[in-house]
Design brief:
The protein is 38% helix and 21% strand. The protein has 452 residues and is of the alpha/beta class. It is globular and about 75 Å long. Bound molecules: NADPH dihydro-nicotinamide-adenine-dinucleotide phosphate.
Length: 452
């Protein structure tokens, strides 16, 4: 096995060195997950629910430890990291309620009765990116396990530590050996093996659109089930009739949270002409007040980027002549970058490409139709916000924006009880919400004749 030095992005120091799987060793893990799939699906729904609840309780007992691990490994602010560990617990609790409610239908037909069942798929492969290692893992493994599947999960090389710890906590909670497996390894070999290994029946992938497309193409060979959660370039649409002070005060968190490394980042800010100056004035104050600092500090609101490479890529999008203002960032060790706001006419590269860093572009619009035209002028469609006091307009615009998760007078995109996923090239399928188990089950139809 080869090894990999896991870095702390805030200090550039090595946190720990991990062993990496290769294709042969990941095949052995998949074999084991396949072998135990039969006994796991036979665990009664009530017992599976009890095990998931216990897993949630063990995660809760280790919430601070998991949060600290994420701060050290991903540079997340401690406040965010605590929320993320709590999210894993909550998602486990939510889906612990699912095994006993995952019922099929009895459909009226002639000559007998017709029943549907939701059968587990078998082994599910989950590929997780580095931007939200804990929540994205949980959104996959919790409903997958609840539906009776076994799981092999590959975290990103850069951020494997919380996932590896969660696998240990699952065992401590009594989830049987081989049911929930975490394998550290690189994406192109170990991750892609989920696509080519016939024992893996579904791949859940979150990451770049480029890799998502490769996975979709590869999955065609075995008609393998996939869920893809890819990039975004979401719009934050601010109408002149909105509470401009509130929209401007919230806008930095909507794009610079997690240093902008968020597929839901509202990195295109569309402001109606007549409110533009007022918005920019208030937005500038809010950006300059953003606390970009050592992520272990309880007051931190933004930490470093994940790596030097990511910071260089993000910097490459900044056109100095278009910069309206910047916030601050520490100097010295760590992959720091100040939050940066550019003005745009809607034609530049930064306005159209997913930057995945602390860079926002602001553009003016005239009216509702203009706002919709600009918002939809992108291959992505993941999230977005609409700010207005006119509720009819809010609904009209919400129906018109081609994205999967919108919020009105708010910037929050994700709740475990509601569906999450993208339109267009932002992905395929939905995660979370009451129907998540459907994506981890095959619907089987059985007709029973009642004729003599
Ligand atoms: P990737 O899509 O390369 O990585 C995401 C995950 O996929 C990682 O676990 C990675 O493994 C794995 N992976 C990489 N290649 C393959 C493959 N051929 N088959 C299977 N799995 C694979 O994202 P990057 O880390 O390179 O980030 C690049 C850009 O992608 C970002 O700047 C951002 O724009 C976007 N992105 C979007 C995310 C989102 O949430 N929508 C999340 C992350 C990135 P490993 O890294 O360990 O090799």
């Amino acid at each position: 096995m080869s090894t990999y030095d896991v870095l702390n992005p805030a200090t550039e120091e090595v946190v720990t060195t991990i062993e990496l799987h290769d294709v042969a060793s990941v095949d052995r893990v998949i074999d084991r997950a396949h072998d135990v799939a039969t006994s796991w699906r036979a665990v009664t729904p009530a017992d599976r629910a009890r095990l998931l609840r216990r897993f949630a309780e063990v995660v809760d007992a280790h919430r601070e430890e998991l949060a600290q691990l994420e701060v050290a490994n991903a540079g997340h602010t401690i406040g965010n990291a605590r929320w993320e560990a709590g999210n894993v617990r909550d998602v486990l609790h939510y889906y612990a309620g699912a095994p006993e409610r995952h019922s099929g239908k009895q459909i009226p037909v002639a000559g007998g009765i017709d029943l549907t069942f939701y059968e587990p798929l078998g082994v599910v492969g989950i590929i997780v990116p580095w931007n939200f290692p804990m929540p994205i893992a949980g959104w996959g493994f919790a409903p997958a396990l609840a539906a009776g599947n076994t799981v092999v999960l590959k975290p990103a090389m850069q951020t494997p530590l919380t996932a590896l710890r969660l696998a240990e906590l699952a065992l401590e909670a009594g989830i049987p050996e081989g049911v929930f497996n975490v394998v550290a390894g690189n994406g192109s070999d170990v991750g892609y093996r989920f696509v080519t290994n016939e024992k893996v029946r579904k791949v859940c992938f979150t990451g770049s659109s480029a890799v998502g497309k490769k996975i979709m193409a590869g999955a065609a060979d075995q008609v393998k089930r996939i869920t893809l959660e890819l990039g975004g370039k979401s719009a934050n649409i601010v109408f002149a009739d909105a509470d401009i002070a509130k929209a401007a005060a919230g806008a930095p968190y909507a794009v610079f949270d997690n240093a902008g490394q968020d597929c839901c980042a509202r990195s295109r800010i569309l402001v109606q002409e007549s409110a533009y100056d007022e918005f920019m004035e208030k937005f500038e104050v809010a950006v300059k007040n953003l606390k970009v600092m050592d992520p272990t500090n309880d007051a931190a609101e933004m930490g470093p980027l994940i790596s030097a490479t990511q910071r260089d890529t993000v910097q490459g999008y900044v056109d100095e002549s278009a910069v309206a203002f910047r916030g601050s960032a520490p100097s010295g060790a760590g992959f720091w970058m100040a939050p940066t706001v550019m003005e745009s006419d809607g034609t530049d590269r930064a306005f159209h490409e997913e930057i995945f860093g602390p860079v926002a572009s602001v553009v003016r619009f005239k009216d509702e139709a203009d706002a919709l035209r600009i918002a939809n002028d992108t291959p992505y469609g993941l999230s977005g916000s609409i700010w207005t006091r006119d509720s009819a307009r809010a609904l009209r615009v919400a129906r018109g924006v081609e994205t999967g998760a919108l919020s009105v007078n708010s910037n929050s995109s994700v709740r475990y009880a509601t569906p999450f996923g993208g339109f267009k090239q932002s992905g395929i399928g939905r995660e979370l919400g009451p129907d998540a188990l459907r994506a981890f089950s095959e619907e089987k139809n059985v007709f029973i004749s009642t004729e003599e």
